[in-house]
Write a structure and sequence with these properties.
A: alpha/beta; GMP Synthetase, Chain A, domain 3; 2 domains; nine-stranded mixed β-sheet; 13 strands; about 30% strand; B: alpha+beta; five-stranded antiparallel β-sheet; about 45% helix
């Protein structure tokens, strides 16, 4: 038994574990982190959205009667991110706790100047999560985005996080890029595809509880575009179809709705994409990179606004072809837009590195130029698997 | 601290031999018992004019038996004997005593004894002693009886399906309850008296040929070694014969259920009955025995297996519940899902204590409630449990002394500790839980892991009569896993636990499965 005690004591001393003991009521849970350019040159403005737990549950108990806001935003400036973060101790009564930070938002102004050097503290810190996504505040400051309160979600940062996940899952207009993935693309030659978040409506009203007291919310947050970066600097935005084309190319499209012409109506068929998978092959043609994109997707018809007889095989085949063509166009448009800005947001460089390592050695020096000069071949195979709960649409007035 | 220095056996001076005169014997008996008023002496003239005296203790004897079959029989039957006992004394004397023994006494058990020790012991055990004038010997008639509880449903280890009989305080009844279940000539019983003052009957029961002879011998050796003044409950014996005293975990199983004892005897274990308690000890014991309820074998096996797994789950909750909570909210906040963490933070907002103090407050309050619930009179039990559980819990949360989550954690922990079929084991778990809470508060999950390791090492190092406590896990015995974490169908349980019954491990033929196809 003495030997057991000895081994036990040794283990306590020698092995490592989480040391410090912190009571929950001494922590300020940071839900969201925003980084902006400061007025002072070379300084950053860091905003933290801190959860006010008391207000959240009090609101739940008394049916929203509480005056306290569910979150508070604290802002500090500093020449490094960590300095600014620590400075908030002057204004926050509790120690900020970053392990539950839902996402990081970069202000557009800072994004245009470049922010790729800002993430070292993220990797170094033991608290911050590398799987939190990153967003760029489109047309506003990160601080403003963090200060908005919106209905349905008590903690706005969780709301943004859920919006992002949902939008990329069922609409396909945004890309959930984690800090970890961002760091991986930063160290390679490609550019990250970061989603943009914009404020719709008056940002001032959005920071007050007034925003929650209207049925038709006057200020809301929208995630609907993907940033095009060049050398870590924001140069332009891709939206709608081009954003979706980007997701196809990244093989990250999980689901979306595509509209196709229905007889005389230009967008009368709604097809829900259920599964999609993209493979990228790299070839060399006349010394230029050639990317062969193969997309295989399945979907179902969700809406028909004309009398199309989809019980016929030919109609379905036609519809599938149209769908494939529309997809090809979206992909081509996305690539074209990125090529114009010489920004490889599709990680084509990484594909070349994987598939043609010899060629990559020559190309990687001026990869943005090579990318802008690349050729594209897109081949889409689209299958409509289901038509919903009925086949032919109802006929108004009948025969 | 054992009484090693004390001399073995009789401390009193040697008793004088029995006298030939009844009056002397009766007087001596009375003196020996300190003129206790419950000693009844009935003097009578048997065989015409020979003085005899019957002595017994009131209350522990069967009075009807004494009246009808001893006194009445003596007064009528012995009159048929020729009235010249003084002649040819030597042979006639023997004749008289054996005549009384063979013809007069209509009780099942009659012995002739010569020394006072046995006379006293018999009288105190409820037998009747019969002195006959002119003989330095006494007749002992088995008339044990008196009041004891009827066979009732056991108050611990209840089952829904299964026999409802429980042991009583009478060792004879208890032995018979097991005999009724195992009608085998191999069911052997050995009785001994332990306790110099109490002279408690202790019986060792086992099935010859199944139980390991080595363990039987070891148990008997340890029982014989006990040198104490009194045995009042099986707990005394348990402490005296167990392998390791310094452990919160029971190394000897105790049960109030005859079916449980019978099942354990069939597995090759040995039962120890102690007079005066309904709890029968079963040894050797493994850790996993404490998670088996007799009902596991009476209900369908898939359900029983699931319930048994649930029971292991409740053991873990009872052991780790509050400590996991403490560790998670003071050390590992990042592990808790965000929404839950915010919720917990809001609850803890108004609590002025650190999590450990909060947990200790609630746990101690709960232990007080439990202790009060066991000790207090039945009539006030309801009131206390309502005040304790509902009012105290609710008020403490509303006053902001403890968080509601802590009340939930403590409640589920408390309920889980009741789900264990073995009360001795849940007592041990209750104790270890507090130590676990401290290690969680000091070192978080790391401390819990280290402390659990220590406990596991301790449990693996324990043995019960030579059988490793953690078997069949340590050492690993694949065959015995058929009835450890889950219960296989009875048809598949054809072996007995390997280590326990070392001789006859095959339980049933494999042919007990119905043949397929022919139905």
């Amino acid at each position: 038994m003495r030997r057991v005690w000895l081994v036990w004591g040794l283990m306590l001393i020698v092995l490592t574990g989480c040391w410090n003991n912190r009571e929950l009521d001494k922590l300020a849970i940071v839900a969201g982190l925003g980084i902006d350019k400061s007025e002072q040159p070379g300084e950053y403005k860091v905003s933290m959205q801190i959860v006010n737990p008391g207000a959240i549950t009090m609101g739940r108990k008394s049916g929203g009667g509480s005056k306290a806001m569910p979150v508070s935003v604290y802002t500090e400036t500093g020449s490094t991110i960590f300095e600014a973060m620590r400075k908030t101790a002057n204004s926050v009564p509790r120690q900020p706790f970053f392990a539950h930070t839902q996402m990081v938002i970069i202000g557009e102004e800072l994004a245009r100047e470049g922010f790729s050097h800002l993430f070292d503290f993220y990797e170094r810190s033991r608290e911050l999560r590398l799987n939190a996504p990153i967003l760029i505040a489109k047309g506003s400051k990160a601080e403003q985005v963090l200060s908005l309160i919106t209905p349905l979600e008590n903690v706005p940062a969780s709301g943004i996080m859920k919006r992002l996940t949902l939008a990329s899952k069922i609409w396909g207009g945004s890309h959930e890029l984690s800090i970890k993935a961002l760091l991986q693309t930063l160290v390679s030659k490609g550019e990250p595809a970061i989603s943009g978040i914009r404020i719709q409506g008056d940002p001032q009203i959005g920071t007050t509880s007034e925003n929650l007291e209207e049925t038709n919310t006057s200020t809301s947050l929208v995630i609907d575009s993907i940033a095009v970066l060049k050398e870590g600097k924001l140069v332009s935005w891709l939206s709608e179809e081009k954003a979706r084309g980007t997701l196809y190319l990244l093989n990250e499209l999980k689901g979306t709705i595509m509209s196709l012409p229905c007889q005389d109506k230009p967008e009368g068929v709604a097809i829900e994409v259920l599964r999609s998978s993209t493979t990228t092959h790299v070839d060399v043609k006349h010394g230029r990179p050639l990317f062969r994109i193969e997309v295989e997707q399945e979907g179902s018809i969700s809406e028909l606004q004309c009398q199309m007889d989809i019980s016929k095989r030919e109609t379905m085949v036609k519809l599938q072809k149209e769908w494939a063509k529309a997809t090809e166009e979206e992909i081509a448009a996305a690539v074209q837009a990125a090529k114009e800005k010489k920004s490889d947001i599709f990680q084509f460089g990484a594909r070349v590195h994987e598939q043609k390592p010899g060629v990559w050695k020559k190309w990687k020096q001026d990869w943005p130029e090579m990318f802008a000069d690349s050729l594209l071949e897109v081949q889409v195979e689209a299958y409509i698997r289901r038509t919903g709960m009925r086949i032919k649409p109802y006929k108004v007035g009948g025969d | 601290m054992r009484w090693k220095s004390r001399p073995e056996s009789s401390q009193q001076p040697a008793q004088p031999a029995l006298a030939e005169q009844v009056a002397v014997n009766v007087a001596h008996l009375k003196t020996l018992l300190g003129n206790s008023s419950d000693l009844v002496v009935r003097e009578l003239q048997a065989v015409g004019e020979i003085r005899t005296a019957a002595a017994y203790m009131d209350g522990i004897t069967d009075k009807d038996k004494i009246n009808d079959y001893i006194i009445h029989a003596l007064l009528t039957e012995t009159n048929q004997l020729p009235k010249e006992p003084q002649k040819n004394r030597q042979s006639a004397g023997d004749d008289l005593l054996s005549f009384i023994q063979t013809h007069a006494l209509a009780v099942g058990e009659v012995r002739i004894v010569q020394d006072w020790d046995r006379v006293i012991l018999s009288v105190l055990s409820g037998d009747t002693v019969l002195f006959v004038e002119g003989y330095a010997e006494a007749l002992i008639c088995g008339t044990k009886g008196g009041q004891h509880r009827n066979v009732e449903e056991p108050s611990t280890q209840l089952v829904i399906r299964g026999p409802k009989e429980g042991f009583t305080e009478s060792i004879g009844t208890n032995v018979s309850l097991v005999r009724k279940r195992i009608k085998s000539k191999d069911l052997w019983l050995e009785t001994m008296k332990i306790g110099q003052v109490t002279q408690t009957d202790v019986a060792v029961m086992y099935i010859q040929g199944i139980a390991s002879e080595k363990i039987v011998k070891e148990i008997k050796r340890r029982l014989n070694r006990i040198n104490t003044d009194g045995i009042l409950e099986s707990g005394y014996i348990e402490e005296f014969i167990e392998d390791k005293g310094n452990t919160p975990f029971p190394t000897i199983y105790n049960t109030e259920r005859p079916d449980s004892v019978a099942a354990n005897l069939l597995e090759g274990r040995i039962a120890i009955f102690i007079d005066g308690t309904p709890f029968v000890l079963v040894a050797p014991t493994t850790f996993f025995m404490h998670f088996q309820s007799p009902e596991d074998y009476y209900q369908r096996y898939p359900v029983s297996s699931a319930i048994r797994l649930l029971r292991y789950g409740t053991f873990l909750i009872a052991l780790f519940g509050p400590s996991v909570y403490i560790a998670a909210i003071t050390f590992h906040q990042e592990m808790i899902p965000t929404a839950l963490l915010i919720n917990l933070a809001a609850q803890r907002e108004s609590v002025p204590f650190p999590a450990l103090i909060e947990a200790l407050l609630m746990e101690v309050a709960f232990e007080i409630l439990r202790e009060a619930g066991v000790r207090m009179p039945r009539a006030v039990g309801q009131a206390v449990s309502i005040v304790g559980a509902l009012v105290l819990g609710q008020a403490a949360v509303e006053a902001g002394i403890v968080s509601s989550m802590m009340v939930i954690v403590v409640s589920i922990t408390g309920i889980s500790s009741f789900a264990n079929p073995s009360f001795s084991m849940s007592l041990g778990v209750r104790f270890v839980r507090f130590l676990m809470m401290f290690s969680a508060a000091i070192f978080g999950f790391y401390g819990m892991a280290i402390f659990s390791l220590l406990i596991l090492t301790h449990m693996c190092s324990m043995r019960s009569f030579g059988i490793p406590y953690m078997s069949p896990f340590s050492p690993f015995i694949l065959e015995d896993h058929k009835d450890t974490l889950i219960r296989f169908p009875l048809k598949k349980l054809f072996t007995r636990p390997r280590l326990i019954s070392q001789q006859d491990v095959i339980r049933q033929g494999t042919q007990s499965e119905p043949s397929k196809g022919r139905g």
